[in-house]
Amino acid sequence: MTAVPTHARAEAVPAGDALVVNLGGVWRITQPLPVWRKVLGDRRPHAVRLGVDGLERWDSSLVRFVREVEGWCRAAGVSCDATALPETVRRLADQLAQAQEKRRPASQAPNVLAGVGLAATGLWWQTREFADFVGECTLSASGLLRHPGRFRWRDCLSEMQQCGAMAVPIVSLSSFLVGLTLAYTGAIILRQFGGDIWVADIVSLSTLREMGAVMTGVVLAGRTGAAFAAQLGNMKAGEEIDALETLGIAPVEFLVLPRLLALTLMTPLLVMYANCLGIFGGMVVSAGVLDIPPNAYWIETQTSIGLSDLSVSLIKSVVFGMLVAVAGCLRGLQADRSAAGVGRAATSAVVTSILLIIVADAVFAVLFNALGI
Fold first, then answer.
1. Predicted pLDDT at 4
2. Which three-class secondary structure state does DSSP give residue 49?
3. How far is CA 85 from CA 58, 221, 238, in A?
């Protein structure tokens, strides 16, 4: 007569302050299995010892039950002794515990001080990497000044076309619309006092001192800075940068400096062009809405702006162009070697460029105010 295998069982036997749990029978995940909560009942032992009593066959259901017992003991602060179980069961239970620990989500309420410390540390390292990169670019540029024949002028001219001439349409549209917006906004207030002609002052001063350089910098950050990061990130993913380093060619000198010089030279030209279109946008609103003749608008514009305003715009344009180029190239060289890493590098380049532009603009505002410019 063939013996009928018994179902899985877990018998709990009190032994003083401890609870001995004997596991036996056939443990199959497709059959009815013991539940630890029912086996435990209302008992609250100080220790749990797992043992074997007539254990015939088992699968992952036994490992899961053992892990459930160990998890309860850990949560309740109770010792759990599983040395009497087969070594394979104990090893699989440990592996299951490690896998569950890795999948455990982070705490929803992290330590505030720890979060502040990690954020400060991350900001410090990012600032240090940015400073190191700027220093490396400075050293490479000084080396090229001593040996100008090593500079790749063809690459620089190509980048000047891409970040300069090819950016004219989007810069034209954004600058013209900014001028329109400034004129309409100024007209709402000035009409109340009969000072419609002062719209020319608001548009010209705002465009030259702030909006022309800032808007052009933001446009270049989204267009050119992201392109620099994507190009260098793709080259890093394709191990082209590693090949340059193997040949003894510095990536900063070969790849970064042509882009840096091109954007630094083209940004002032784009900013001056944007200033003209912004003032022209204000002139269109003044002529069409406020009935101010173009010649009167132009005369008022000339009386409101001076050489200092033009100098402020040029200084900001040069700095903003350098910041966008440095941020885009740095994020590209820091990109992970994957398609997702290139995308993250392009996004990070745009965010970093815009943040640096805002910070630099605030510093310039304080500095120019202190100097009386």
1. 47
2. strand
3. 12, 63, 52
What is the C-alpha separation between 276 and 204, in angstroms, rounded?
9
Helix ranges restricted to H, 191-306: 199-206, 212-220, 226-237, 240-246, 251, 257-288, 294-304
Domain locations in the chain as residue ranges = 9-102, 151-371
Q: Which helix (H) or strand (E) holds 320?
A: helix 307-333
Report the C-alpha gap between 21 and 11 in whole angstroms.
5
Residue 300, C-beta contacts closer than 8 angstroms, at least 6 positions apart = 197, 198, 200, 201
In the beta sheet, which residues pair with residue 24? 9
CA 218, CA 213: separation in Å to the nearest integer? 9
9-102 domain in CATH 3.30.750.24?
yes
SS3 of 248, please?
Answer: coil
Find the radius of gyration of the CA atoms of the chain.
Answer: 35
Q: What percent of the chain has pLDDT above 70?
A: 95
* Average pLDDT of the chain to the nearest whole number: 86
Q: Which of 52, 49, 62 is closest to 20 using CA atoms?
A: 49
Give the count of beta carbons closer than 10 Å to the beta carbon of residue 53: 15
d(CA 8, CA 150): 79
Q: What is the DSSP string of 189-213?
A: HHGGGT-GGGHHHHHHHHIIIIIHH
Give the pLDDT of residue 1: 40
